[in-house]
Amino acid sequence: MFAVLLWLGAIVAQVFAIRMFLKAVNSGESPVNAWVIGLMVLDLILVFAGSYLWKKSNRLDPPSEKNKFLFYMQSQLGVVMAFVAFLPLIIFILTNKKIDGKSKAILGSIAGVALVIAGIGGAEFNPASVEKYTEETNMVEALTGTNNVYYTKGGGKYHIYEDCYTIKNSERLNGTVADAHAGVANHSDFDLCGICKNKKMKEDGMSEESLNEKLEQVKAGLNKEKSEETQTATEEEHKDAA
């Protein structure tokens, strides 16, 4: 919700930037002024902050990959909003015939750079999804029997050993796999620590084949629970109908 409000604020800032730009042009003044540039900067701050909150929200409540288009739109909405917040302004600047080439180049460059920054800030290079979290949770449960991992806010991995040497000198947090994804600052390529995985497999005398068997058992257990929940819900509906 806050992300949407910030994006709306960015669009409003863009509208005012266009108005101030046209006002300066129509009055014969230079459009390269503090108002226009200041509103561009405000536009960038608002759209960037909105994208940050949107990506944070997606990590807490990830979309499903079942519908590829909706998954892409929800994951990369920050990029879309970057274009919405800057492209109309860029078009107004570049197509206006009343301003000189120098002013057009300066304002166009500022708006273009702002668009690139906002686009990169809004892009999700490692998008979260229900399927991804489920797969990673299954792996942790197959290795340890529980959905509990350790991580640091600035780390690039989550761990099944609290004393893993890669995090032993850092402030450690623990929670589910989903908690770990939501709690880290750097979400790019955030996944299970290979050192922890290999250590656990070695301790338990587990091969890749036996690990895959455990994974299938975990998945079967989850599917069974879902089937039982569905069956219970259906039975309750029949009772209510009766």
UniProtKB/TrEMBL annotation:
Region feature Disordered, mapped onto this chain: 203-242
Organism: Flavobacterium cauense R2A-7
Protein's UniProt name: Uncharacterized protein
Keyword Transmembrane: yes
The keyword Membrane is assigned to this record: yes
Residue intervals passing through the bilayer: 33-54, 75-94, 106-125
Keyword annotations of the record: Membrane, Transmembrane, Transmembrane helix
Biological classification of the source: Bacteria, Pseudomonadati, Bacteroidota, Flavobacteriia, Flavobacteriales
Domain of life: Bacteria
